[in-house]
Amino acid sequence: MATQVFKIPESFRKNVRYSFCPGCDHGVAVRLVAECLDELGLTENAITATSIGCSVGLYDFLNVDSIEAPHGRALAVATGVKRAKPDKFVFTYQGDGDFASIGWAESMHCAFRGENLSAICINNTTYGMTGGQLGPTTLLGQVTTTSPTGRNIEYYGYPVKIAEHIALSDGTAYSARVSLDSVANIKKAKLAIKKAFEVQLKGLGFGFVEILSSCPTNWRMTPEQAHERVRDEMMQIFKLGVYKDITV
Amino acid sequence: MSHIVIDQSKCKACYLCVKECPKNLIKISEKTNNLGAKVVEFCDPGHECLGCAKCATRCPDLAITEVYKG
Fold first, then answer.
1. Chain A residues with beta carbon closer than 8 angstroms to that of B57
2. Architecture of domain B3-68 in CATH?
3. ipTM of the complex
């Protein structure tokens, strides 16, 4: 008798097809969020404040209540939702441009205030939806449509290391950086997302996970080459690990 | 018997699952779906599937919808 070891999460909407490009890791990240919602029994009680960018379509994919925030302001909107309805589970799912550039003030101050929220940030070192422009996490030397000769320090400065910054806040309960470049790392990513959700359920403060993700379309790579880039270039600068966990 | 179920309408032909399968049981077929993607198919005449679910874990489009082990 065969046992089912994988199924589409209950929190995922039936008969929906992702709008992401072929090979994009957003699809894996959204599935992990749905699996964590399932396993923690949060689907009925969850509200998400969604962002702008490739991450915007979350409400099309998940069976949770959602509210659309202006660009970068997902955590500001989520703060209002959580304070109005503290018994609800509130989370955001954002890209690096939304979280760490356009919404950097809202994101950091949410962590400084220690809001009892969970946030997922997808870091693919570019603005994916708008055509691959230089973003806050673009690596030094990386060619984008707005840095055609590569990111240089003199003109553009350094890439933002999000998980480390969030971990500096006293209000942060959990901050980690994970990657989706391999099956083993996907499994670790799920554990980190679950942890970021659990700290909210325990009322401990801000839970945050930065997920290193590929963008084959804008990187002009095959999906496999893109994962190699995540390993060989991104993970050398954005080190994986748990930067803060007040539960240990 | 271990096996997987593929929803070919969701496949976008990234072929990450093809590379991931430790037994090389996922092949690129001649069929295309309504996205124009040359979809993958599961070929396991020798019942070699381990039910490891690496393919489904890797698939970014939830096109591998079920995995059974045993």
1. 6, 28, 183, 186-187
2. 2-Layer Sandwich (3.30)
3. 0.97
